[in-house]
Design goal:
flat, six-stranded mixed sheet, three-stranded mixed sheet, alpha/beta
Length: 365
């Protein structure tokens, strides 16, 4: 499994430039990696992971298949979107389908690029978008609770539980807090996610800075970082303009370009890594002569569930998992040598898969 991140932002903040860079990068990867553009505003890009190349080299794998990340370009968010302004209703619906929100904020001065509010204030921009999402959530909650009245009178347990969660979200929103600030009990997590509230999504603030600030950030991005820290949210500094230039280069040219700019890595790599951390995701690997492949799972996933990411039959018929730590696999030169050195372990249904595990699943058909 990969994950789906919605890119939002006010007009002229660099959102489309960033998405274009992502899709060009993905198109460039198409020769080597699975890639598809599902719709004009949806694209998938391979998740960079240097460990995968090392595993493939150690195992002599013919093919490398990284895990993937889906980006959704959610346009049309302006003040009044919750009331249908711009293309509000259509794109607010798109946000409900994503796992997390990347909120692109303009953190650069440029007289040639107008701002809808005639000023550069990323914190105020963030507040504008958040307000629209909160208003949309409030309207949705009020309608849903009104629709539950008859079932509540009949004592429907599921309706009672749903109304309790909706009431908790409504109380937070009426206090000016997004739904993600609500503390949800473990037994309610699944039902809470099914509510698909816009402001319950984890948020990553993407500070789009000028080229000269790509490595260090600037005063605008510093304010965003401070805001994100206060909210318990994440932030990343990126120059959409640089990313678009990199997306048109081959791997060697891109590396040379980054070196000239004084950057250690592409901003898109930082963006993806920040997204993984935000959603508490991890990667495990399956490695053999045919292919070395990465798989994404939530942290804390037990072995049978991890196996189910490959195929449902793997989870249903799970017997055990044979696992080798990434470091051991590389240090010892592959599966057989790691096994000979006693570094392969057999783990049962209770085993919690760790980031970097190299796994082989045994199952009944």
């Amino acid at each position: 499994m990969g994950f789906k991140m919605g890119i939002v932002g006010l007009p002229n903040v660099g959102k489309s430039t960033l998405f274009n860079a992502l899709t060009k990068t993905a198109a460039a990867q198409a020769a080597n990696f699975p890639f598809c553009t599902i719709e004009p505003n949806v694209g998938e890009v391979a998740v960079p992971d240097a460990r995968l190349d090392k595993l493939a080299a150690a195992a002599g794998s013919k093919q490398i298949i990284p895990t993937r990340m889906t980006f959704v370009d959610i346009a049309g968010l302006v003040k009044g979107a919750s009331k249908g302004e711009g293309l509000g209703n259509q794109f607010l619906a798109n946000i409900r389908e994503v796992d997390a929100i990347a909120h692109v904020l303009r953190c650069f001065e440029d007289d040639d690029v107008t701002h809808v509010e005639d000023r550069v204030d990323p914190v105020a921009d963030a507040d504008t978008i958040e307000t629209e999402l909160m208003l949309a959530d409030l309207e949705s909650i009020e309608k849903r609770r009104a629709g539950l009245v008859r079932k509540l009178k009949g004592g429907d347990k599921e309706a009672v539980a749903q109304d309790r969660l909706l009431a908790a979200a409504q109380a937070a929103l009426e206090e000016g807090r997004p739904a993600r600030t609500v503390e949800v009990d473990a037994e309610d997590v699944k039902a809470w996610k099914m509510l698909q509230l816009l402001t319950s999504k984890p948020i990553l603030y993407v500070c789009n800075v000028d080229e000269g600030s790509a490595g260090t950030g600037n005063e605008f991005s510093a304010r965003v970082e401070e805001m994100a820290a206060a909210q318990g949210a994440a932030s990343v500094v990126i120059s959409a303009q640089i990313e678009e230039e990199i997306s048109q280069l081959d791997a060697d040219e891109a590396e040379m370009f980054l070196t000239e700019m004084g950057l250690d890595e592409a901003g898109l790599d930082r963006l993806i890594r920040a997204g993984y951390e935000l959603l508490h995701l991890e990667t495990y690997f399956t490695v053999g002569p045919k292919e070395a492949r990465a798989w994404t799972i939530p942290a804390g996933t037990p072995a049978p569930k991890a196996a189910g990411v490959i195929h449902g039959d793997f989870e249903k018929g799970f017997i055990r998992a044979e696992t080798i730590a990434f470091a051991d696999f590389i240090a010892l030169g592959g599966e057989q040598k790691a096994k000979d050195a006693g570094k392969m372990r057999a783990e049962g249904k209770q085993y919690v898969v760790k980031d970097g595990d190299v796994l082989h699943f045994l199952f009944n058909t």
